[in-house]
Structures
1.
Amino acid sequence: MFYVDKRLQFPVRVETPDPLFARALQQAIGGVEGEIRVAMQYFFQACGARGNPKFRDLLMNTAAEELGHIEMLATAVAMNLEGAPLSLQEEAAGNPVAGAVLGGINLKNLLSAGLSAMPVDSDGVPFDMSHIYASGNAAADMSANVTAESTGRILATRLYNLTNDPGMKEMLAYLIARDTMHQNQWLAALEELGGHDAAFPIPNSFPQSEENQDFSYAFLGFQRDGSEPVQGRWSEGASIDGNGTFTSRPMEPMGEEPNLGRARKGSGAQAEQE
C-alpha cells in the first residue's frame, strides 16, 4: 500500500523557463539512466525479495523515494515549458521561446501532453521497462543497483553543468546527493550479504566444484597472433572473491568446426541443403 503527500520531496523552482532544458530533463525521467528505471527496478526487486525482510524494506523505501524524484522532475519539466507557444503558427524568429520549441524540444511535450512531462527520454522514446533488473538474487540485484545509481549520478551531474538556473542547480544538487547515498547503501547491503569474500561469485549457492575450475580465474586473450593477454590486477594474484588465483593465457580453440549436416526435408530449406 502506498500513501501520497501533496508536497514535493524537495523544492522545485525555475527562475528562467528553458524549454530546451525541459527536453534534457526528460532523460532523467524516462531515459535508461532515469528515475522511472530505478523506481521500477527497486520496486520489483522488493516484490520478489526473499530471506531477511530488511532488504525488502530497504528496496521498497528507496523505490518510494524514486517515485518522488519522478514527481520533482516532471514538475521541473512543466515549469521549464512555461511560456512555450501553444500555437505552432507563431513566428519562431521573433520569439526565442518559440524558436526553442520548434528547433529543440520534443514536440510531444506540447502536442501530446500540453506542456507537461511524459514517461519518455529526451528524444521522446517511451521507457519500455527493458532495463529493469530484478533477478531474485539479492547480491546480483544490489550490484545492478550500484550501476544504476552510478549512471544516474553521471546524468544528473551533466544536467547540473548544462543549466545556469539557480533553482534547477539546487534541485539537481539534491538528486546528486541522493545518488551518492544510494550508491553507498547498495554497497553497504552487499557488505551485509558477505561482501566480495562471501557473496561472490554470484550465485554463491552454486558449488564451484561443479564448474570447470580450469577457467574459473583465468583471463583469456583472443589476439589473433597468440600474444600474451593484457596484464593487470585481473591476471595475477589472489582473486577478488578469495577463492582462487588469477592467471592469464592466450585462448586456443578447444572445439571442432561446427557441421550441422543436411537440412530436414520439409523444413523450408533449399533443395541443395537437404
2.
Amino acid sequence: MTSTKVIIREAQSEDAQGVLNYLKFITNETSNLLLTPEEMAQKKLTDEINLLEESSKSSENLFLLATKDEKIIGTANMKSF
C-alpha cells in the first residue's frame, strides 16, 4: 500500500544519487528551472555529495528534500548571504 504522507527533511550526503536522479528528471520536464539538462549532465556524484555535506554542516545553508514513499519528489536549497 502506498502512503499519501509527504516527509520534508534535511538532505544528507547519502541522498546525493537520489537528488541527481530527481534533478535530471525534472530538468528534462520543464524549462522553468535555473538548471538546464545540459548542465545536469555535467554534474558529478562527488560534487553533489560535497554540496550536501557542506550544507548539513553549515548554519547558514539548508538543503531540504520532500519525499513520498522514500522517493524524492521535491527539493529546496536555501543559502544565506
3.
Amino acid sequence: MASNPRNGRPYRRLCTLQRALGLPCWWCGQEIDYQITGPEAGRHPYAFTLDHETPLSRGGSLLDPANARSAHRRCNSQRGNRLTTSQPNASRRW
C-alpha cells in the first residue's frame, strides 16, 4: 500500500524550512501566527499551512521549494486549486 507523501520526511522538511522563513501569507498579505502548533494548528484558521503556487492537481510539484508558499489555513482552503493568475474565459461560440 502506498503511503501518503505528505507524511514523509522530505515534505516535513520543506514545511519546516518554509515555516523558518517567517513570511506573511502569500495570498492575503497578513502576518501568520507561527506560534500555533500541534493539534490546534489543524483547526485554527490563522495557523501556518504550506500552500503550493501551482496546485498539485494542476501539475505542481509537491516537494519543489520554488512552488512552496506560506499561507493561513483559511486562505489555503478558500483558494482551493485556483491559479494565481486569471485564466482566459473560453468562448461560448463553438
